Amino acid sequence: MLSLNIPAPRVASARLALLAGLAAAMLGVLPGSGRAASAAEPASANWKPSKPITFIVPFPPAGINDVLARTLAQRMSNMLGQPVVVENRPGATGNIGAEAIVRATPDGQTIGILNSIHAVNAAFYRKLPYSVTRDLTPVAPLGESPLVLVTNPRTPYKSVPELIAFAKANPGKVNYGGPTSYPLEMIKTMAAVDITNIPYKGSGPTINDMIAGHIDLATGPLLEYMPHVKSGKLRLLAVGTTGRLKSLPDVPTIAEAIPGYDITVWYGLFAPKGTPGPVVERLREATRTIMNDPEVRKHMAELSVDIAFSQSGSGALSSRLSSETERARGIVAKTGAYLN
After folding, report:
1. Is 108 left (phi over 0), alpha (psi -120 to 50) or beta?
2. Which residues, in sequence order, are CB contacts of 20 under 8 Å at separation 6+?
């Protein structure tokens, strides 16, 4: 029998090479290296920022958002090998800074801290140049702060029931200020009282005007208001949590006078939509490591920031963002308290 020595077609060789490559990938072997990829070295571990990272804070310096950002930035710089520069961009109830994050190149070089105000803004503003749920990538939850309701000591009410009674007897005469109107719009709706909103860019100007007697009420994170309460310049009426705080057992909750009231301030790290998955994961890993550092945990406790939320993952942050927005839309539908 005649034996023919015919070379294998090139296409077959190509197929064999492709199959070999796929098999190598499935087995975790790096092509051409002869060694398996280490499970301890995920793709995210290979990402390194190529230049300083910009960390946007949509609020003025010295507030809790700023403190959280600078705590992360200092340590993140050491972990990623590039400076992390905090940039405050306050204004429009946090929308200016949030839009700056949205418009940034999605390469991991720009990140930012957002909080529950941004979920509320999506409901209170008819027109926003961005969508907080569609145009941002949740990186990592950071923590929560108790909300407090404070007033100028010269006001005649010393409790939430007294505030409600006064507001009902004097429609439109009680005013409130702050970077967001949502917490007091909830009081306005749930207690059926007529109180007037005066918008502010941040907690600092709000506190100054309240001490000066220009506004009557405000709500905000515990950390930002307690020094002024302790000095006697402001009066603490209640906290927004469902139960009384261990650190302030004698201070009632708003819910004791208005059943169902429940607001805490949460904080999260975000990146522009389209930021590559390995980059997001590297930032997430760095954030989780930082938030688990004993020194940071102690510092957060001193700031009255509960970091349990930081252990819940980016899915929980996304869910919290969506649910808070929907609840705010329900309030706006009842009050018509749009900001534009």
Report:
1. left
2. none
pLDDT recorded at residue 180: 79
Which of 256, 288, 309 is a domain's end point?
256
Does residue 185 contact residue 197 with C-beta atoms inside 8 Å?
Answer: yes
Percent of the chain past pLDDT 70, that is, above it, reads: 86
Distance of CA 85 to the CA centre of its chain: 18
126 Cβ neighbours under 8 A, 6+ residues apart: 338, 340
- d(Cα 140, Cα 287) in Å, to the nearest integer? 7
168 with 231, same domain: the answer is yes
- The whole-number pLDDT of residue 340 equals 67
d(CA 99, CA 296): 29
- Nearest Cα to Cα of residue 122 among 335, 336, 324, 334: 324
Q: Which domain holds residue 73?
A: 47-144+266-335
**Do residues 310 and 288 lie in contact, with contact meaning Cβ atoms separated by under 8 Å?**
yes
Query: For residues 235 and 151, is the Cβ–Cβ distance under 8 A?
Result: yes
Tell me the C-alpha distance between 54 and 87, whole Å: 7
The one-letter amino acid code at 325 reads T
- Does residue 60 contact residue 66 with C-beta atoms inside 8 Å? yes
Q: What is the CA radius of gyration of the chain?
A: 26
Number of structural domains found in the chain: 2
Task: Count other C-beta atoms under 10 Å from residue 52's C-beta.
Answer: 12
Tokens of 76: 């993140």
Q: If you average pLDDT over every residue of the chain, what do you get?
A: 86
Residue range 127-153, pLDDT digits in tens: 899 999 999 999 999 999 999 999 999
Residue where one domain finishes, among candidates 204, 235, 256 = 256
| Entry pTM | 0.79
Angle in degrees, 0-180, between the axes of helices 314-335 and 116-124, rounded to the nearest 10: 40
d(CA 96, CA 85): 18
Helix/strand/coil for 151: strand
Residues 6+ apart with CB under 8 A from 156: 162, 166
Task: Give the residue ranges of the chain where pLDDT is below 50.
Answer: 1-41
